[in-house]
Design brief:
mainly alpha; 2 strands; 77% helix
């Protein structure tokens, strides 16, 4: 299936083409970026349709079969993630067109933006452990530079903290790769999955898994490895904040943990209840600690950063529950949080663009002066809180159902109750920034910025209303792909045998 390499080859080629186009005609840079982002969205839709007919599509790089050669393994979970990446990338690229007007060297921004996109896409489709590291570093290094893009002291500091913590996670992952390769003599994920079952429950098995969980907990900004996040998100330009919070932490941390735990290490709640209880504990710790910390924030974007840390905890909670409804809820939450948190960070960019301030105490009266921004924030916030019929409600509902099915009634009650915490800190922005009266001078953001926000609002509403169809066509198949467990390995090799 030749469409698979397009996911990373197209943005990678675009990244190298942008510096040339910038010398010819500068508007071509952002036009091409938006166009490529939209093409990736179309290709991702095709990928979703293709995985309905074939559970696993394997692309052999250089036509070398697995495990000898590098392969791209594309299933319904990969299709789901690539679709969400393409949507958030398209939205943030559209928002950036006018937002970047005060900046110089915009072609450098879009070059890094496309490299970051290529890295994320590569991570979710690769079937090779070392290639996963390579794509992770491509995306991560690009994101470090983008956080510091304005070269302000705050941005340089936030980028430096992000880089230090990010590289600790990246090098730890590299250590895990070396550890696994020394034992299994392979880097192919499907082959590793088969080899690990021969050393299951040994010290090596749990040590390798522990190193990986540590590495990707940093990337996912789970408490207590979150310290980079409250500095990096506020410092970054709003389109990058939206991209980081909307999808990057899910790809860098959550996707990798889920893929490796379920499909490579082959763990299930029935076989390893203590491990999955640990994931539940990690999720609850992030939800509570980051949620309470968000209540004390006065910076618009810093509050949203702590909110992101808290909301990622709900995703980890769903995976920790480990049954069908819990995993389905976690994957649904990835979608819901990607849309809502990207939207909320774009509203922060709209406010900063209009007022030049992120201080909640100094911002007031914007509800009347910036109605599109205000209502975009409200819809995004209500989805995060879990108000029906918005998409966030159904994501939390399935996590709660998963907890009940697993016999954790207390966890279902706690999960529902913790939504009050989300309500409390998001109301702080609503009351101070959009509800209070003020004579502050501000006007609504430019057209392309408003279009990108309204686009996400429409998606949040439509996906919520059509949640059953979304589950049937997108979320359900992605859930089944994870819960197949070690069948991932059999599908990769059987696909090659079938097409030999």
């Amino acid at each position: 299936m030749p469409f698979i390499p397009l996911f990373f080859a197209l943005p990678l080629f675009t990244a190298f083409l942008i510096p040339i186009l910038a010398k010819i005609y500068k508007p071509l840079v952002w036009i091409l970026t938006i166009l490529v982002s939209f093409i990736l969205f179309i290709v991702a839709l095709y990928g979703v349709a293709a995985t309905h007919h074939i559970p696993m599509i394997v692309y052999k790089m250089g036509n070398w079969p697995p495990p000898l050669g590098i392969v791209m393994a594309y299933d319904s979970f990969s299709a789901f993630m690539s679709l969400i990446i393409s949507i958030i990338v398209f939205t943030c690229s559209l928002f950036s067109v006018r937002f970047l007007n005060p900046y110089t060297g915009k072609w450098k921004f879009y070059t890094l933006f496309m490299l970051m996109t290529a890295g994320m896409m590569g991570m979710v489709i690769t079937g090779d452990l070392f290639n996963m590291f390579v794509f992770l570093e491509i995306a991560a290094i690009s994101s470090y530079a983008l956080v510091a893009f304005g070269l302000e002291p705050e941005q340089l500091e936030g980028s430096f903290k992000y880089m230090v913590m990010g590289e600790i996670g990246g090098l730890t992952f590299l250590l895990a790769i070396a550890f696994i390769y020394a034992k299994t003599s392979t880097l192919n994920l499907a082959d590793i999955a088969s080899s690990l079952q021969m050393v299951r429950h040994t010290t090596f098995f749990w040590t390798a898994l522990g190193i990986i969980i540590f590495a990707f907990s940093i990337k996912a900004a789970l408490v207590p490895f979150h310290s980079w996040c409250p500095d990096a998100y506020p410092a970054a330009p709003a389109p990058i904040s939206g991209l980081l919070a909307g999808i990057c932490t899910k790809v860098f941390g959550i996707y990798t943990i889920a893929r490796l735990v379920f499909n490579i290490f082959g763990l299930t709640r029935s076989s390893e209840p203590m491990f999955f209880d640990f994931l539940i504990g990690a999720g609850l710790l992030s939800i509570v600690f980051a949620g309470l910390t968000a209540l004390n924030q006065k910076d618009y974007k810093r509050l949203l950063a702590y909110s992101s840390i808290s909301q990622v905890g709900f995703i980890m909670l769903g995976f920790g529950i480990g049954n069908y409804y819990g995993v389905l809820g976690a994957i649904f939450y990835i979608l819901a949080h990607s849309f809502a948190k990207a939207l909320l960070f774009l509203t922060s960019g709209s406010v900063v663009n209009a007022t030049g301030s992120r201080d909640i105490k100094k911002l007031a009266g914007l509800g009347e002066r910036m109605p599109t921004t205000a209502w975009s924030f409200r819809i995004g916030a209500l989805s995060v809180i879990g108000l029906p019929p918005l998409v966030g409600f159904f994501a939390k509902l399935f996590i709660i159902l998963g907890a009940i099915k697993a016999g954790y009634l207390w966890l279902a009650i706690v999960t529902g109750g913790l939504s009050i915490l989300s309500l409390a800190y998001l109301l702080k922005i609503e009351n101070n920034v959009f509800m209070k009266k003020s004579k502050i001078k501000a006007k609504e953001s430019p057209f392309t910025m408003r279009v990108s926000m309204v686009f996400l609002v429409i998606l949040i509403v439509i996906v919520g209303i059509a949640f059953q169809q979304i589950i049937d066509t997108l979320i359900g198949p992605a859930t089944q792909a994870l819960l197949r467990g070690l069948e991932y390995s059999h599908l990769v090799f059987s696909y090659f045998s079938m097409n030999f």
